[in-house]
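User: Hi! I have a protein structure encoded as tokens and I'd like to know what sequence might fold into it. I'm fairly new to this, so please keep things simple.
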């Protein structure tokens, strides 16, 4: 587990983005191009902001940043995001991905890649992090600075499937909030420098 996961999060989140051709589902419930973003995201901050059709997350040193739009609640969906890999000094510390099954700042799930080529899924509670799919190396992870990764989550009931760049990573189960939940963006920064993760093209479609 990453050291920075034990650090209290800045309470910010954002609905996911995606590359259209890589995402499943035709009944689109929400789409965000960040040009400009829907005002329900709230005002830009130093750690989470949108400009020029992109969303940016800049976590504090050795910390995390996430951004959600609580005005949009989903249940049984395909949710996708495309994110660009930043420059990192310490590859295992570079972390970017998606928040899902978000209830509040103490209860949510997170799927992310590490810039050393690994991918994993965790559940966050007030007591800490629990691995749902422990970090594992996967050839589908694109890790060079400037590479773009497309992450998709197929969520139905208490089950989910994680895809990365069109490759199925794993099936999993969890305890989603009753009545639907928000979906967001997630990033971490290294101890020695802040990393800026760039996200584009949010899309959430019905999973029937």
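Assistant: Happy to help. Inverse folding works backwards from shape to sequence: for each of the 208 positions I chose a residue that suits the local structure. Here it is:
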């Amino acid at each position: 587990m990453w050291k920075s996961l034990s650090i209290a999060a800045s309470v910010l989140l954002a609905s996911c983005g995606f590359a259209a051709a890589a995402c499943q589902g035709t009944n689109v419930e929400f789409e965000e191009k960040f040009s400009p973003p829907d005002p329900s995201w709230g005002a830009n901050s130093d750690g989470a902001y949108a400009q020029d059709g992109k969303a940016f997350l800049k976590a504090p040193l050795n910390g995390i940043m996430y951004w959600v739009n609580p005005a949009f609640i989903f249940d049984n969906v395909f949710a996708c995001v495309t994110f660009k890999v930043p420059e990192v000094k310490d590859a295992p510390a570079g972390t970017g991905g998606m928040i899902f099954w978000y209830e509040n700042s103490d209860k949510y799930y997170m799927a992310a890649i590490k810039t050393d080529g690994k991918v994993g899924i965790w559940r966050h509670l007030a007591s800490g992090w629990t691995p749902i799919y422990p970090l594992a190396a996967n050839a589908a992870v694109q890790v060079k600075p400037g590479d773009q990764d497309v992450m998709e989550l197929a969520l139905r009931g208490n089950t989910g499937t994680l895809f990365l760049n069109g490759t199925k990573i794993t099936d999993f189960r969890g305890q989603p909030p009753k009545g639907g939940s928000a979906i967001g963006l997630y990033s971490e920064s290294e101890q020695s420098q802040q990393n800026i993760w760039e996200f584009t093209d949010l899309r959430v479609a019905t999973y029937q």
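A useful reference point when you look it over: Residues 11 and 122 are 17 Å apart (CA to CA). Feel free to ask if any position seems puzzling.
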